[in-house]
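Sample intake sheet
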Amino acid sequence: MSGFDSGDESKAYIDGYIARARKAQEAFGASAQDRLDAAARAAGKAVFDNAEALARLAVDETGMGVCEDKAFKNRNKARMIWNSLKGRRSCGAIARDEASGITEIAKPVGVVAAITPCTNPIATPMSNCMFALKGGNAIIITPHHRSAGSSAATVELIDAALRKLGLPENLVQIVGVHSRENTRNLMAAADMVVATGGAGMVKAAYSSGRPALGVGVGNVQCIVDDSADLADAAAKTVAGRCFDNGILCSAEQSAIISDGAFDGFVAALEANGAFVVRGGADRAALRAALFPDGEMSRHAVGQSAAEVARLAGISLPGGARAIAVVAEGPGGADPLSREKMCPVLALFRARDFRDAVEIARENLENEGKGHSVSIHSRSEENIWYAAERLSVSRFLVNQCSATNAGGSFSNGLAPTSTLGCGTWGNNSISENLNYRHFINVSRIALDMQGRAVPTDDEIWGPDSPAARPLPPVDRETGKDGADSGH
């Protein structure tokens, strides 16, 4: 049901949002940097100050996740994103290269349409608002219908904070009537679309006729080799699998362990509150409960390990936080190798590290290609081996992927709630979404008179730089021989 009697009524309804947004953006888009920064800061601080109340609204409304974890995510994402935005220029001249004579000037993209998911109904709208405002844009949120109330409460708090700054009304809006038709009309009318959610919605965004940024399916593979600190790796893996009841796309989904480390890692999982299912009827019951008819059951999404066990009809020891189950095979051989949006971890025993990488590759080819891999290892050789062979956009080394793949204070990934998966995941970006994706850049090109023009022999000849073998890359610095002066 669209809530309207005709498609024309839906279009007129959305056109009202667009008109209000354009008026607000025209007044705001020419602002100085301090005004843009004040707006972005206010959006994040509004959520930071109300993290617990918004988390409770989200859990009560959607029936998914853990209130304490959502509150932590709301606070931490707000502070990390604002910290990453401080001191960054996003309007006017933002860079000048004296060597090339290029000066970059940042300008807003205009009106952004953001489709947000029920699995992350607070942090994702907040992140999108902060990035959009940092770039001088207006933004219109269309939330999942299951989380419309909590997302609306988030936008109301952000609006109130912007109003206190004397900023134009309607810089941030949220669509009040939810329907596919309204979402299609919004995407078709905006200047840019950001889609975070199911594959169908992301595909619709890319088909909207507007520039679109979407994200792919998560299915994070966690690889553990013989050199890993098994206690640390297991603690971080269980923590990631349990965080917010396993609902994050960045959460560990499968643990693939080298043969020599398998028994020790499984014992460490048990010490950290995981109940291990090694096969038999319990494994079959879990598979049937999680993937009836071959698709992830909505009844298990964001539920606790105890509730998943109840759905499967298996007995779970008291105090168990997660379920780890030995899968029958990688890729299409067992649905347990797929994304499981609840505290269930698939286990795979690999012959050695190279076999572990191959198992991860098969799982990713089946689902989740382009997203992320977690590696627990002290071997630089193994880390590079995996990074050079697996088609994902980010590798988390000795970290909890669930909480760190979207950026953290301890790694260099951009803090975000939207993780691009590149062409591997049918996405247009292979990095974490950030404010740079919410600006256009004009380039002033000077005529650099006096620059040496290479001869044809220098360009095409056997002694030209292009004809010389490339120097090896230093794995510690990331530079090649030419960069490092050797």
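Comment: DSSP finds 17 helices and 15 strands in the chain. The mean pLDDT is 93.
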